[in-house]
Amino acid sequence: MSEPILAVSGLTRSFTQGDVTIEVLRGVDLTVGAGEIVALLGPSGSGKSTLLQAIGLLEGGFGGSIRIAGKEAAKLDAHGRTLVRRDYLGFIYQFHHLLPDFNAAENVVLPQLIRDRTRAQADDRAESLLTALGLGERLTHRPSQLSGGEQQRVAVARALANRPALVLADEPTGNLDEATADIVLAEFLRLVRHEGSAALVATHNERMALKMDRVVRLHEGRLA
């Protein structure tokens, strides 16, 4: 059996407020196989975002082991973490965080240029992804000219632009109405499966979680 794309062991995170220490993560163990889509289910405030920030190497202060594509990433310096994020990870957030002065295609092109793709390669990839998400006629529209669902589709395309081994999605449809959320989630799952990426998707919506390959629940700082 091949090594999982993600292997987390004994992950801890605590915060101190005055004289009080709050343990958010209490020894989390998690594996995600290549191409597997896993729902991270838990109520708001349960630590889902904290766990994704740890796995995404976005901040320090965590204990334990995080192996991404077979590489021990938790102890890397800032430059090493940047390279792992660039080469292996894609990110989608509840709010799309698109660059407002760039059009839809340019938002998908930019991370590819950082990865040293040529402009022609990046343009082709952006057009292919956005067309697959039903935005072939909206390539030159800026975020302010797109609906909420369209903006989040662009964010999905941007996350997949560099063919990441693992996509981390934090409440990716949480800012959309239910009907639009269902459509965007279905397109996200379809495209992630087509691209062959794995995904860890944080959500508080059990109905959506059950559409994924596997569900893990975060409860009192541990996964079940």
Automatic annotation (TrEMBL):
Q: What's a single GO CC term here? A: plasma membrane
Q: Name one GO biological process term.
A: lipoprotein localization to outer membrane
Q: Which UniProt keywords apply?
A: ATP-binding, Cell inner membrane, Cell membrane, Membrane, Nucleotide-binding, Transport
Q: Which GO terms describe its molecular function?
A: ATP binding; ATP hydrolysis activity; transmembrane transporter activity
Q: Is the Ribonucleoprotein keyword given for this protein?
A: no
Q: Which residues form the ABC transporter domain?
A: 6-224
Q: Which CDD domains match?
A: ABC_MJ0796_LolCDE_FtsE (cd03255)
Membrane spanning stretches: none
Q: Which domain of life is it from?
A: Bacteria
Q: Which PANTHER family does the annotation name?
A: IMPORT ATP-BINDING PROTEIN, LIPOPROTEIN-RELEASING SYSTEM ATP-BINDING PROTEIN LOLD
Q: Which family does it belong to?
A: Belongs to the ABC transporter superfamily. Macrolide exporter (TC 3.A.1.122) family.
| The protein's name | ABC transporter ATP-binding protein
Organism, by scientific name, is: Sphingomonas alpina
